[in-house]
Amino acid sequence: MNDGSPFGSDAKLHHVGMVVPSIASVRRDLEVSEDPTQRVRVAFFQMHDLTVELVEPVGENSPVRRSLERGNKLLHTCFEVPELESAIESGRRAGFQLIRKPTPATAFGGRRIAWVFSQALGLVELLEHFIR
What we know:
3 helices
């Protein structure tokens, strides 16, 4: 680990993701985007110095539906990293497993994301800083 971050010293907290049954039931004033690849709708807002992503499942086989059914609200943390493959490898050395390979994300204008998981620290989204 570098400087306390399993994803490298340049990793920066980008947002926390919260799963909700309906974004509109939480905040009606947000711009919502749908990501068919991830099978979710998302919207972002600021809460003090923290960016919060509201994540709503789309369809019965949405990957976030199970978290919602279990009553889990905090879904993930997201770290923005300069180079996705390096962050994945650094995370692997720190005990994170890659669970979803890098893919472009609608919510981030096509920047790539990857999903990693650690039994100790949970689900983490890695967001590449630049579009390739």
